[in-house]
Amino acid sequence: MSERASSDSSSNEDFVPQTPDMPVATLRGKRRSNAHEQNGSSPSRIPVASPPPPPPASTTHATKTVTTTARVTSVSKVHNLQGAKGLRSVTMSSIPFPTSSAPAPPVLTATHAGFADIAFRFLNMPRIPKADVTNSSLGLGKRSRPSATRAKTKVDGQKSNNVQATLPLWRTLEAKGKGVIAATLDYELLGTLPYAGTMVTPGMLREGLLRPDTAYHAWVGAKRAIEERRDGVWDLASILKAALQHYLVELGASMLDRVEGPHYTFVDPRLHDNPGAMAKYAMKLVKLFAEKGYGRDRIVVTIPATEAGVQAARTIERKYHVQTNLTLVSGMHHAAVCAEAEATYITFCYQELSDAYGRKLSTGNSFFKAWEAMLTPPKRLAGEAIDATTTFFNLHEIPSRVLVANLQNASDAEELGEIDAVAFTAEQSLRARAPALEVTPRQVSTTATGTSAKQRAQEASYPTVYLKARNGAFLSSIPPDVRSVAKETLDTGLKDMTKQMSKAAAHVLEFIQGEAQLAHIVDDLALQQLYEEDEKEVDRLAYLEAAGHEAEPLCQVRMYDVGFRLRYSTWDTLPPPSRQDLKK
To answer: Where are the stretches annotated Disordered (predicted)?
Structure first.
């Protein structure tokens, strides 16, 4: 009995009860280690849950011991918990506890203070009154938020903010007589928003091939071009040209059905240096639109404002009475030449024009170049060129209308003077329909940029002599500083338009090639004649390779064509001779 008692007592001394599994609470603070062992602070006073306590001791506030195990070492340490009622010796879990339940004080820097100041100003910014945010202002039938805005009381001596709620940009443009042209293929927006017209660009033509609802029109255009081929000859170049024209017309007709107003189509930008080819291409488009039931009053043909493009526009306007739109215009002198060609519309591409002024900075020093760009930013120079053009047209009562496309931001349209229309993408259209907060702009002096736009417009003469000099080669007749901007604008814009048009043509050509191969498969004799040279070349290469000689192809073999793979099948022919057979 004594031995059993002694063994029980010894086991009780060595026994350390285990902590049951408890849900781990989220602990605040970044340090997840035994901080009281590292910084010498007071031990943790967070109690640890344990099994039911032993019978109460004689003193209620007796000192209890809790055994904890360090995280790094395996040495157990004992801490005294004063006044810990109902706690017994337990082994704490490996999860460390912080020295305090409060988070550590953050380390603030100047950057943090700046962000905090911005956040404070943003949160205290006056909100738009609920009366201005309505379904009609958004224009998309969305429900307004039910929460009411709260107005803050102005404290005596506090400065009033220069921020106020404004009407949507779309309403502002309409109030100033500026139309909005849809440069998007989103049929939902085309049927919902009050656009003044529609526009198609080479980039949109390629985008339409990637959208299921518009790729159908490319398929229809290619099918019609294949059916209209002459004498059944598969001339891929002529079929591709006709397929792109039919695709343009099919896409434009789908947009005309949804939006009232003119539709701006375009000629192939790869013909920008051939006035006769551009005029022929434009009249083909007009003829195809007439077959769809759309007259010349609804169609505007966009042509690059190169020297050949201006000549083509003058021919189309005077001889065929078709509306034209000369695009990639760079300034007042360039626009005056387009107006003398009797173009109905001229278009400033804002992005390309701003980039051209950015490259125009003459100095090569990077510091002075950045300083000059800060004083006269390229966007401001582009805006002044557009303002000078509209002022010049108003002074001389020029009937040509001014459009602006390729805007960087929708808000730039409000600062572009007396333009007639602006082209918006889908995203820009949605932003223009929503109310915005207007901040009073900082006054900028115009003395650093020389004479104002109005003075330059008054000093210029009209009509000019640019078209009469050197048989229409007007770029060499305009002032040198204007000439450099015009060349940069045309080069940048034409490079991008040509790239997008070539990619769209490659997609359509791939489909036409597949149709041509399937057509030759039906006629076995035609298929044999088409791939006869390819079969001979493959046989020659196989024989030389089997003989151990190096073989170089004399012509490119169309091994991946469907027709060639069906024609040159080897399942019913003998394999080529091996080296051993040749030695025998």
So the answer is: 1-64, 134-158
